[in-house]
């Protein structure tokens, strides 16, 4: 066991990051495994995710979140909000990898935001702010460079619901499974698809796409 997890989890993380061409510091590796351990422990009581096995959490949640890291890093964000973050995916992962970036995590579910606050303090993530509210209730004085979501809503619903969150040159970056042709066709004409990147998540045999949308 490592970090209270099966040793296989560390191997999956190490080999997965090698495939994704991500270099982890020892501290980042420990934080990612520490977060996975907390998700596994809390999930038994609070049902934070349908994924039960820590090895599957590592692949389907941690590596899935890490798969967008390099593409989002190219955008050089200073302020990011993860809308409908659930137990912190991908927001907590981004916060661990980008300690210099301000990361806000928004979710309406009190169980999940309690878990997020627990992880913030346990892992000493000083760049994280947890918001337990509906997206339309969040009216920030300063907009975000990136509004990210992972299976939060349809693209049109995301754009409409999160319109007040994005800075003037900010971007919406929904994470999707299959390429969402129908959702993009229904997107309001005031928004433009900047790019779509097909992602390969190590150990996950399923379609993954990261979209970048500009107003």
Q: What low-confidence regions span 5 or more consecutive residues with pLDDT below 50?
A: none
Q: Average pLDDT value?
A: 96
Q: Widest sheet: strand order? A: 3-2-1-4-5-7-6
Radius of gyration: 16 Å
CATH class (first level) name: Alpha Beta
The geometry reads as: globular
Tell me the structural class: alpha/beta
Helix and strand element order: HHHHEHEHEEHEHEE
* Overall tally of domains: 1
What would you say the CATH architecture is?
3-Layer(aba) Sandwich
CATH topology: Rossmann fold
Number of β-strand runs: 7
* Percent range of helical residues: 40-55%
Write up this protein.
The protein is of the alpha/beta class and 215 residues long. The chain has one domain (7-214): Vaccinia Virus protein VP39 (Rossmann fold). 40% of the residues lie in helices and 22% in strands. The protein contains eight helices and seven strands. The protein has helices at residues 7-20, 26-46, 54-66, 69-73, 91-97, 110-122, 155-162, 181-185; strands at 79-83, 102-107, 128-132, 144-150, 166-176, 192-198, 209-214. A seven-stranded mixed β-sheet has the order 3-2-1-4-5-7-6, with helices on both faces. α5 links the parallel β1 and β2. α1 (7-20) runs parallel beside α3 and α2 packs antiparallel against α5 (91-97). It is globular.
SSE topology sketch:
Elements: H1 7-20, H2 26-46, H3 54-66, H4 69-73, E1 79-83, H5 91-97, E2 102-107, H6 110-122, E3 128-132, E4 144-150, H7 155-162, E5 166-176, H8 181-185, E6 192-198, E7 209-214
Parallel strand pairs: 1-2, 1-4, 2-3, 4-5
Antiparallel strand pairs: 5-7, 6-7
Helix pairs in contact: 1-3, 2-3, 2-5, 2-6
């Amino acid at each position: 066991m490592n970090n209270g997890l099966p040793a296989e989890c560390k191997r999956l993380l190490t080999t997965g990051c090698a495939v994704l061409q991500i270099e982890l510091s020892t501290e980042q590796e420990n934080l990612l495994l520490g977060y996975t351990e907390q998700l596994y422990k809390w999930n038994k009581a609070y049902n934070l995710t349908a994924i039960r096995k820590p090895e599957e959490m590592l692949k389907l949640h941690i590596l899935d979140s890490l798969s967008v890291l390099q593409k989002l890093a190219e955008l050089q964000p200073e302020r990011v909000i993860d809308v409908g973050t659930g137990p912190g995916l991908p927001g907590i992962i981004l916060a661990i990898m980008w300690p210099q970036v301000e990361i806000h995590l928004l979710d309406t579910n009190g169980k999940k935001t309690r878990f997020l606050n627990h992880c913030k303090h346990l892992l000493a993530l000083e760049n994280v702010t947890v918001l337990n509210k509906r997206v339309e209730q969040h009216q920030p004085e300063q907009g975000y460079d990136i509004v990210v979501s992972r299976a939060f809503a349809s693209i049109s619903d995301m754009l409409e619901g999160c319109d007040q969150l994005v800075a003037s040159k900010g971007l919406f970056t929904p994470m999707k499974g299959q390429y969402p042709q129908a959702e993009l066709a229904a997107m309001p004409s005031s928004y433009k698809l900047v790019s779509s990147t097909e992602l390969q998540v190590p150990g996950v045999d399923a379609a993954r796409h990261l979209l970048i949308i500009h107003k």
